Amino acid sequence: MVDFPSFPDGAAAEPDPDLPRYALYVAPEPGSPLAEFGADWLGRDCATGEVRQQPTVPGLSAERLAELTESARGYGFHATIKPPFYLREGRSEAGLLDAFAAFAKGREPFEVRLGLRSLGGFLALMMSPPDHRMSALAADAVRDLDPFRALPSEAELARRRESGLSAQQETLLQQWGYPYVMGEFRFHMTLSARLADGPERDAMVAALAPRAEAVTAEPFRVDALALFKQSRKGSDFIQVERFGFGG
Asked: Which is nearest to 22 in space by CA: 239, 186, 223, 181?
């Protein structure tokens, strides 16, 4: 059972756009088949920053494919464990790195099966079946590393609410700065924007399915967490360090 902290008193001021944001992700080992699949599909290697030429998708122009993968490309191919956050005043990047490393050292590796799925209209790789060890990993990271997270601004809270949150999601937003954690967590490695049923979605699925099947035939071993950093508002997230599990 996770103990929720008290609600924070209000929100923070709007952050300096030149300040970095950090996130803790599950991401495949750079250069691995799964990492290459994500980099090629999204058009960017999040470990090196290399821009890739995206595959040809029959029925979609190159410009439309780029548009439908723009947001996922900016964040990099990953699954969120601790969502992006600014550092709390008085905390340092060096201290954050030490805390991430210590957290990872206390975890045991495990394997999950992945498959192409739809989550709220987004195409993504998801666990099949779900695995409680991943949910526990994410919950522990959100809770244990929360002392490093600055409170969100009113603008950030408002943006999160635009999609329409349930009462539980609103509670999580206020407690942890993000509505899709703890009981609302769903492991996913995003591959598209939200797609309505129709020809575009069909074209994306037809192109993605064989590619995804080729890199998910074997279980995905979760044995490290990756620190991603966005150097300033609007820039891409880059994988800057991996922390191997100690078990």
From this structure: 239
Superfamily (CATH) of domain 21-244: Cyclic phosphodiesterase (3.90.1140.10)
Q: Using alpha carbons, select from 97, 112, 136, 129 the residue that is nearest to residue 2.
A: 136
Question: How open is the CA angle 185-188-191, to the nearest 5 degrees?
Answer: 145
pLDDT at 23 over 50: yes
Query: How many other C-beta atoms are found inside a 10 Å radius of the C-beta of residue 111?
Result: 12
CB contact set of 224 (below 8 Å; sequence gap of 6+): 29, 104, 242, 243, 244, 245
pLDDT band, very low/low/confident/very high, at 163 (cuts 50, 70, 90): confident
Alpha-carbon distance of 165 to 219, in angstroms, equals 33
SS3 content of the chain, % helix, strand, coil (to 5): 35, 25, 40
At residue 141, the 3 state secondary structure works out as helix
Cβ atoms within 10 Å, residue 116: 19
Look at 139 and 17; give whichever has higher pLDDT: 139
